[in-house]
Write a structure and sequence with these properties.
Blueprint lengths: L26 H25 L7 H11 L20 H14 L2 E6 L14 E9 L3 E2 L2 H10 L4 E11 L6 E10 L11 E6 L2 E5 L6 E2 L6 E2 L5
Parallel strand pairs: 4-6
Antiparallel strand pairs: 1-2, 2-3, 2-5, 4-5, 6-7, 7-8, 8-9
Helix pairs in contact: 1-2
């Protein structure tokens, strides 16, 4: 994954989509929520069939329906940076959309499926993104990135401290935190789940015993707060 710079909003919405019923909700609301959940399930099942080619119909319409069923936080083009959305694994896509809806965090996708990638991106099982508390102005903290991504059942989570983005007001390039998430199982048994940081091109992998991150290149061990 290379250093990245991003300069414009590609049509991404910023609503969090929170509309769940709370404790003590009325029977009428409960019925409506139940119907909505059934509709979402139907959309997801139908989208899966379309995208996987089980139904002879254009997959883009199904992908749009899937995006809309999880809050409509993205447009189709947000996922088609390097290739068609049909290259994406539909189960991972659904999980990512559900995660975005759950976090309520403004998210700019910077990479999805990538041609020539022999790992997660090339299999349509990964997305790189930037998380913002203020759109193209201010990012979430490294800790918030980490908690949001690792609380969800992604197989791979990586934070990249060597990215930049272009501030929407000043036009200046700002140091950024990039986030990689995937559901790739790896090339061999026990390779995943995996958690890592990248700082100045060096990869630091997290120990499941200590929680610290070790770099095989420079032999240094750090914590997330030291990154």
């Amino acid at each position: 994954m290379s250093k990245s710079s991003y300069t414009s909003d590609s049509g991404l919405g910023c609503g969090c989509g929170c509309n769940g019923a709370g404790i003590g909700s009325s029977p009428v609301v409960d019925v409506k929520n139940s119907e909505a959940e059934n509709t979402k399930t139907d959309l997801v099942d139908t989208a899966k069939k379309y995208i996987n080619g089980d139904v002879p119909m254009k997959y883009k319409a199904a992908a749009i329906a899937l995006i809309e069923s999880y809050g409509g936080n993205f447009s189709l083009s947000d996922f088609e940076i390097q290739g068609d959305i049909s290259r994406m694994d539909v189960d991972f896509l659904r999980s990512f959309l559900a995660w975005r809806d759950w976090t309520g965090t403004k998210t700019l996708i910077t990479s999805a499926w990538r041609e020539g990638d022999l790992k997660s991106h090339g299999k349509g099982l990964a997305i790189d993104c930037l998380l913002f508390t203020e759109w193209l102005s201010k990012q979430a903290s490294p800790l918030q990135h980490w908690l949001l991504a690792t609380t969800w059942p992604f197989q791979g989570v990586g934070l990249y401290f060597d990215w930049t983005f272009t501030h929407k007001v000043s036009g200046k390039k700002i140091p950024a935190i990039g986030l990689h998430v995937d559901r790739w199982s790896g090339k061999q048994i026990n390779e995943r789940p995996l958690r890592w940081l990248r700082i100045d091109g060096h990869y630091y992998y997290q120990s499941t015993k200590t929680g610290r991150f070790y770099c095989r290149q420079n032999k240094l061990t750090i914590t997330l707060s030291e990154a």
